[in-house]
Structure formats: structure tokens, C-alpha cells
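Justification of resources, computational component.

The compute hours requested in this renewal are based largely on the per-chain cost of generating structure records like the one below. Each record pairs the submitted sequence with a full C-alpha cell output. That output is archived, and it is also reused by downstream analysis tasks.
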Amino acid sequence: MFSILLFCPSSPGQSQVLSAAQELRSIELIIVKNSKVVFFMVFVRISVSKIGYLIIDSVNLHLFSYKFHAMGLIASFGKYLLFIADVFRKPERRSVMYKLVVSEIYELGFKSLSFVVFVSLFVGAVVTLQTATNMNGSWMPRYLIGYATRDAIILEFSPTIISLLLAGKIGSNIASSIGTMRVTEQIDALEVMGVNPATYLVRPKIFALVCFNPFLISLSMFGGIIGGLVAGTLAGECTTAEFISGIQYDFTPFKAVYAIVKTLLFAFVIASISSYHGFYTEGGALEVGRSSTRAVVYSSVVIIVLNYILTQLLLN
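The structure output for this chain reads:
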């Protein structure tokens, strides 16, 4: 229709009709454009609102999960305290307890001697070589190699790193053995016989580690320093006299006391937390493995946190 009007002869009436048609066409184009803009704005608003709702729901879900885990940790800590109270509540006969402690010292302590000595020798050697490498070309005397090795071994490596390794070796052993007794109903049989299973099974392990771990850590200190001495002498970084002089230089006996205090607490943590996770194992063989994993993880985390707290309290 618009094309017919355009090619027709012009007249006043036709020009008015043509201008009116053009105005109508422009109005239609404006309406179409506005409708597209309005539709796009509505779509964007709906999309943004949906994304906002999803974000809010996700945040609420995470907050709920964090609260749930926090409550779970608090409940587990309370259950752990009750478990420890049960362990030391009902004493067994001394003769029975003595035999159990000696047996646990052999199983948990003596069988770890070779492992501790082997690791300590090589770590002491590595610490010495790294210290000597960092001192090359400096004005510092060579006897400081022995001094740095001594402090690194006594203050941190032997009490903390060896305890973390023992948490993996001994902690998994404790959790798996007690967990196996739980799933095979041997602990239930002890309860039927009138024996307190927490005292009978857990207390000897705690006493054994608390009594024997200081000896293990002291042996680790000695082995680490000997390994450093041998490595430093063979590598030509220092002489034997210089290394021994560095070991004796500015020695503070409280550093050894600090290491032993950490060792005692770490031994209690390893034995008690591993026994706790094994004692409350539920299910079958798969759950025993999971309990062993949890025992190692939680023991390691607590050891690291306690290491910081004790260092802050005792050395500062």
C-alpha cells in the first residue's frame, strides 16, 4: 500500500495520507524496539534474581554445613573427654596392668627403634649439609654448623617430626587393632565379662607411649647429631672438633626439657586419640580403615597445634 502511494501522482490529500502512513510506520518501529528492550530487561532481571537466589541458597547451605561440622566437633570433643574419664576411672589389678604395659612397650616402642634411628641419622645429615651450604662464603665460623644442627634436632625435629611419624606408624596400629576388636565384638565380650574395655585396652597403651616415647626421642636426638657429625666430616664442611665445639656452644639445658615436655604431651595425644577412633568404630573392615585414617589425621593436627601453643608458652 505504501509503495502504491509513493508512485501515485501527488495531491494534497495523498501527501497527508503518505505522511500519516510514515508516522504510523515510525511508531511501529519504536514500539518493536521498545518491546525488545523491555523483554531483554525483564529477562535480565529474572536471570539476576535467579542467580541471586542460587547464591543465597548456596551461602545458607555452606553456613549450615559449617555450623553442623562445628557442632559435630564440639560433640566429638565432649565424647573424647568422657572416653578419657572412663579410661582412668576403674583401675585394674596392678599385676595385670604391669604385664599389659610391658607388652605394649614392646609392641609400640621397641619395634619402632630401628625406624626412629634410621630416620634421625639421615635427617641429621641433611640438616648439617644444608646448614653448611648456606654458610659457604660467609664470615661465620664453621663450628656454628654443629650449633645449628643441635638446635634444629633438639627443638623441632626429634620431638615434633618424629612424633608426627609415630602418629602415622603407631596411631594407625592402635586404631586398627582396637577397631577390629570392636567390629568383631570382642569389646562387647569384655563388657559382658565385667571388664572395663577402655581401661583394659587403652590405659596400657597410653602408659607405654608416655613412658617410652621420651627414650625414643632422646635416641632420635643422639642419632640426628651423630648423623650430622658424620655427614659434615665426610663432606669436608667442618672438622670433628669444630662440630663438637658447636654442639657445646651456648647450650641451654631447658631446651632439652622443652623437648621432653612436648614429647610427653604428644605421646598422650597419639595414644588417646587413636584409641578413641578405634574404640568407637562402627561397621566392618572398611570402617576400620577409615578409623585408622581419621586417627592419624586428627593426631597430626592436634600435635601441630599443641606444638605452637607449647612453643609460645615455654620459649617466649
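Residues 11-56 form one domain. The mean pLDDT is 81.
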